[in-house]
Amino acid sequence: MTTFVQVAVNVPLSGSGIYDYHLPEELEGRVKPGCLVIVPFGKRTVQGLALRLTGESAVPETRPVQTLVDDQPALTAEQMKLAQWMADETLSPLAACIELMLPPGLSQHTGTLYGLNSEKLPAAAVFTPLQNRLIDLLRQRGPLRDGQIDNALPKVRWREAAEPLLHKEILGSQPFLLPPTVQPKRARTVWLTAAPETLAERLEGVARPGSAALERRKAALRFLQGEALPVDVAWVKASSGATLADLQSLAEKDLVAFGETEVWRDPLEHMAPVVQQAPQLTGGQMEALERVRAGLRQMDPSNPPAPYLLHGVTGSGKTEIYLQAVAEALRQGRQAIILVPEISLTPQTVKRFLGRFPGQVGLVHSRLSPGERYDTWRRARSGQLSVIVGPRSALFTPLPRLGLIVVDECHDDSYYQDDQTPVYHAVQAALAYARITGSVVLLGSATPEIGLYYRAQREHWNLLELPERILAHRQILATQASQSGISMPELDNEGEAAFLPLPPVQVVDMRQELKAGNRSIFSRSLQDSLTQVLNAGQQAILFLNRRGSSTYVFCRECGHVLRCPRCDMPLTFHSDTNDLRCHICNYQRQMPAYCPQCRSTSIRQYGTGTERVESEVQKTFPNARTLRWDAETTRQKGSHEILLSHFSHHQADILIGTQMLAKGLDLPLVTLVGVVLADVGLNLPDYRTPERTFQLLTQVAGRAGRSPLGGRVILQTYRPDHYAIQFAAKHDYSGFLQHELAERRKIGYPPFSRLVRLELRQRDPASAEAEAHRMAEQLQVWMDQEGFTSTRIIGPAPCFFARQNGLYRWQILLRGPEPARLLRGKTLGEWRVAVDPTSLL
Ligand code: ADP
Ligand code: ZN
Ligand code: ZN
């Protein structure tokens, strides 16, 4: 009986991407679900993943599977379920989701090998010049891969020229799988084989007397004498000055022998972990941890515990709970995945995991070499790593006994992938994966996304709250206090922990500054505070929200922002046409001469960059040492770490930076955080801007006052009454939550509806616009046909970031109870689809 196998094939635009094949006799019993196979596809040979084996196929004639790449499945059964879930949920091809889980170097690697059959060459043939070049090339160099021919014959259509030659069998071609580009790293080793007596006898005879080689070889032998185990050749060379030729000569004389060991490329090599003991937990932490532990002990795959949402202000001891939850999972013989926002921005968190679980942590990192990733993948699969720490892609590391998934700073944008297929949210994927594997999922944040919090309440998740800020061990605080020459303040204590209040936040109304004649970008209050901080030898952070600055138009007298009369979204200024535009509905108008509210002429677009802030600081405080941390100064590899270490060693007084500053930094000398303009983010045309502004301000404010020196925050704004600013200033998450939920309910946006965004990118603006309108009409037809009466089409309109890499972007939004259902199984051509997009810009 034939065995059929369904294979997910990773070929762009191949519909569902799932095809039926059958197993040839020699592969019977060897191909298992999750195995990588090579299959014919059209005229090509491609790689695919075996999904299911069945006894029958709906396809009348199937082709055979060609090769089995590896007997061991590349994906676990749970990973295959997760891939399926992601494909359904994000409307992406299954193969694209599977691709996320394949180790680098094992994804698509097929090619074609071309060779010349010289005996078929006619004596006198009329070939085109290009055909002659191709024949000469293969004659000279032997069989070549298509990629090699591409390099040898650049910019010509040699494939077309090859067709007739293949037909006449003058050329032969053969599909094949390229070996994975990454191989395990092997180190050449060498060790001493001679006994000590022999060595002493023969030492002087290993080279010509008096030669330099004699000295080098003797040094190498003496070095190896002191080593009990085989030593890396490179190391011997470095410590003795011997060359490889020297060592080879010694091997010929049977004094040493060569060997090879597989070395793991360890990305953590350069990060020196500090082993830390777990502190005694506070009562609040204890209670939270106990509930997580109960979930971990339950571990019933058929009945996974409800998700945990840990809401705790910055510095409330969340990371300590993650650490102890991981310890519990390990005690249960299970493994853990810890997702963090980008690693270079959260080095302190990563170090704590390394220190607590030495030797057991694998790091997944966007800057790892493919070889390092491959090794981490294989070590995880073989059970040698129990804890994986990394950004969103770390979720796809194969762990056979997963028990815990932690998502730190779960509100962070980096968990959302929108630049390639599949467009997915790692928090949603983590929730699904926890259900599939029966694991505990623990999401933590000081500012959980309100849609998530709303869901946690409605679906009876485990809500854990840590309202108090722990600064550190009392002992560490006392040391810090005496080092900085201040007396230890009176603090609430519990065990080893000391509590410190959140820093006071002052909201400065910039309209009043203008009235008082201060035209600087710094308010008088911020200037005074900076002076104090500099005089006291402390540090300050100046934060600037770069996203979408310089584009909205507002009145500097009264703070009025120009909005679309139809959508109530801020209008965007376009300097090329000097007009204003709504990026939701495409409304356009001229730039007004007067403020429609107060008739002032001070109405203009806003624009301040980090350079401008830095030069203002230097003008006002010529002695202050400044450091800029923005996209420009951190372009180079490793520059985040360098800047951060520079600042934390007090080699600068004022750090001027953008969004990146909001991540988990802990800088004890920082006693002042100034937000140059708190309302910048509020003026983007997206329903989530109040929430994002609140999150950002709360996170940035959390950077101040993380030591007994105390601290304060100054928010400069033209809109001091805006609720996002008000609630952020009071550190009032639940107040904001209530208010924002009420707003969302009014406008019918998530979590009270769901969104799907369709986005188009094209080189030609006119054709992009035409296609956008065509698609909107098509969507309307589908909606009418299928009775989507409570779903609305919004747009089409150009995106807020209307051009990217020379392409014009247009978007259409669908809003309703379940808009994604409309698109399931439909062909959308070049439109990119984002289900539940996190941004509409
Ligand atoms: P979060 O992750 O919420 O920002 P952390 O876990 O980083 O908070 O805790 C903040 C600081 O308090 C850290 O320096 C941490 O080592 C320390 N800390 C946490 N829990 C305790 C405790 N129970 N006793 C003493 N120090 C603690
Ligand atoms: Zn005005
Ligand atoms: Zn509009």
What can you see in these coordinates?
- The protein has 841 residues and is α/β, with parallel strands linked by helices.
- It folds into 7 domains: 4-99, PriA, 3(prime) DNA-binding domain (GIY-YIG endonuclease), CATH 3.40.1440; 110-177, Winged helix-like DNA-binding domain superfamily/Winged helix DNA-binding domain (Arc Repressor Mutant, subunit A); 194-254, no CATH class; 283-470, 3-Layer(aba) Sandwich (Rossmann fold); 505-547 and 610-744, Rossmann fold; 552-606, no CATH class; 754-835, Alpha-Beta Plaits, CATH 3.30.70.
- It contains 25 helices and 39 strands.
- The strands form 10 sheets. The chain has a 7-stranded parallel beta sheet with strand order 15-16-14-17-20-13-21, with helices on both faces. A 6-stranded mixed beta sheet has the order 5-2-1-4-3-6.
- The radius of gyration is 32 Å and the shape is globular.
- The chain starts with a strand and ends in a 6-residue tail after the last strand.
- The relative contact order is 0.07.
- Bound molecules: adenosine-5'-diphosphate and zinc ion (2 copies).
- Residues 555, 557-558, 560, 595, 597-598, 600 line the site of one zinc ion.
- One zinc ion binds at residues 555, 557-558, 560, 595, 597-598, 600.
- Keywords: ATP-binding, DNA replication, DNA-binding, Helicase, Hydrolase, Isomerase, Metal-binding, Nucleotide-binding, Primosome, Zinc.
